[in-house]
Amino acid sequence: TEDEIKTVGAALDQAAGGKKAQRKLRLLTAGSLKLRLVTAQRGGEVQLMEWNDLDLDTAWWTIPAEKSKNGLAHRVPLTPLALRIISQMQSLTGGAKTSQYVFPSPKGNGPIENVQKAIQRIKESTGIHFVGHDLRRTAVSMMTGMGVPRLVVGKILNHVEPGVTKVYDRHSYDEEKREALDSWSKRLMVLVSNLQAIQKTEAI
């Protein structure tokens, strides 16, 4: 619900609390969870995001086929809010100079892996019971509730379209995907912050 989004959003913003040694991991985990909600992408795909997968000049994230659950490469538009989260991670970690991953594990060479502890902390502090996949499901429900066609939402999710129509429809839906995610991003900013924050984000 909208109230739950506000509460969980506030809890993610408070991720820097706790022991100093845990601060970096908590911020990285919070950033990955936020990006899941903003982009509506799968948790594993977000956590495996690499700097080489991003074109920050044109605001696109390409998920390679080998990282995609269905084995199909996927282009995801990056909204100003998504770009801001990525920029925060770059400032936190040093970016591509220190790791190939946007969300690197502070303890090794790979990406962060287990975010369940962070989700459990949020559940305990807010009383809201959810799993990581609910972030993706929430984004989808909100977009369809805003009038985004299911076909466009399916393209955002990188779902395989059934039937013979997919053989003939070669349209990329890039513009429609960006418009839908931009609208959702603005709605999300209204829910977790205020209109001033939206104007500031759009000015990036």
Largest sheet: 3 strands, antiparallel
Portion of residues in beta strands equals under 5%
Helical stretch count?
10
Give the quaternary arrangement of the chains: single chain
Adjacency order of strands in the biggest sheet: 1-2-3
Provide the structure class.
Answer: mainly alpha
Q: How many beta-strand segments?
A: 3
Spell the H/E element sequence: HHHEEEHHHHHHH
What is the CA-CA span between the terminal residues? Answer: 29 Å
Query: What overall form do the CA principal axes indicate?
Result: globular
Taking all Cα atoms into account, the compactness measure Rg is 17 Å
Mean pLDDT: 88
**Which ranges are low-confidence, i.e. pLDDT below 50, for 5 or more consecutive residues?**
194-204
Overall helicity: 55-70%
Question: Gist?
Answer:
The chain is mainly alpha-helical and 204 residues long. The protein contains 10 helices and 3 strands; from the N terminus they run αααβββααααααα.
Structure write-up:
With 204 residues, the protein is mostly helical. The protein has ten helices and three strands; from the N terminus they run H-H-H-E-E-E-H-H-H-H-H-H-H. The chain has helices spanning 2-13, 20-39, 43-47, 80-93, 116-126, 133-145, 150-157, 165-168, 174-192, 195-202; strands spanning 54-55, 60-63, 74-77. Strands 1-2-3 form a three-stranded antiparallel beta sheet. Strand 1 and strand 2 form a beta hairpin. The longest helix is centred in the N-terminal third of the chain and has 20 residues, at 20-39. The two termini are 29 Å apart.
